[in-house]
Specification:
Layout lengths: L1 H58 L3 E11 L2 E12 L5 E5 L11 H28 L4 H9 L4 E6 L3 E7 L7 E7 L4 E10 L6 E10 L5 E10 L4 E12 L4
Antiparallel strand pairs: 1-2, 1-10, 2-3, 4-5, 5-6, 6-7, 7-8, 8-9, 9-10
Length: about 250
């Protein structure tokens, strides 16, 4: 009787152990499958992003458009500038100021000099901020590929099987991050989110970029918004009025 009881006990323990091993194996396979699918998704999306950027970069050269830049300090609109933009025959982006640019208002006397000095300092910072935007737009497919090859790309699911966000750390400088949101179903970019800094890491700037489509499918940056909280600064750039063939 004792022998039978012992055999029954051993059989039960063995069955339980096998169940646990099967469950562990199942969970391991599930994790592996999830990682494999995520890697496949990431590779496919990175390829789509690079293709989209390359195609739109060439197609946009057929257009001219109006670029409107607004500068806000502490939430108050301080200046508005407009440029007509187009690509010259040698492929260089050309910008020509339009009559819609707001002239700067001058204050007389000592107060005026102080205001002008502050404007000059802020103007330098605004110029640096605009240059910073240019260094990220449009994203460089080669940099994107390198970060992917180095295994640094992170992927977030915004909407299952449809919308994703890919994060590219150290895209342009150490400590920054470029995030690209895409709609995989229609093979289109939706937005960019960039967190970076100017001269030093504590001089943080964040900017968001939103995309729209032209009738022929060309994607363009419809709006760009940069925020530098340390300077109470916000810069908004809007692109509109696209015309094919104009300005060539």
């Amino acid at each position: 009787m004792r022998l039978l009881a012992l055999l029954h006990y051993l059989k039960t323990r063995m069955l339980n152990l096998m169940k646990k091993m099967n469950l562990l194996l199942f969970l391991t396979l599930l994790v592996w499958a999830g990682v494999s699918f995520a890697q496949a998704d990431t590779k496919e999306i990175v390829t789509m992003i690079k293709t989209n950027l390359a195609q739109s970069k060439e197609k946009i050269k057929q257009y001219s458009w109006i670029e409107t830049t607004k500068v806000y300090i502490k939430g108050e609109l301080k200046s508005t500038k407009q440029n007509q933009c187009y690509y010259s025959v040698d492929g260089q982006l050309t910008k020509v100021a339009t009559g819609a640019t707001d002239p700067a208002k001058k204050t007389r006397g000592l107060k005026g000099k102080i205001v002008e000095n502050k404007k000059e300092e802020l103007g330098d910072y605004v110029e640096k901020s605009v240059d910073k935007i240019k260094s990220y737009l449009p994203p460089d497919p080669e940099k994107i590929q390198k970060i992917y090859t180095d295994g640094k790309v992170g992927i977030q699911i915004l909407e299952p099987k449809t919308k994703f966000k890919l994060n590219f750390p150290d895209y342009d400088q150490p400590g920054d991050i470029l995030s690209i949101s895409i709609n995989k179903t229609v093979q289109k970019l939706m937005a960019l989110d960039i967190t970076t800094y100017l001269d030093k890491p504590e001089d943080k700037v964040i900017f968001d970029v939103y995309y729209k489509d032209l009738p022929d499918g060309t994607q363009y940056q419809s709006s760009i918004s940069l925020v530098a909280d340390a300077h109470n600064l916000k810069i908004v750039v809007e692109n509109s009025g696209y015309k094919k063939g104009a300005g060539q």
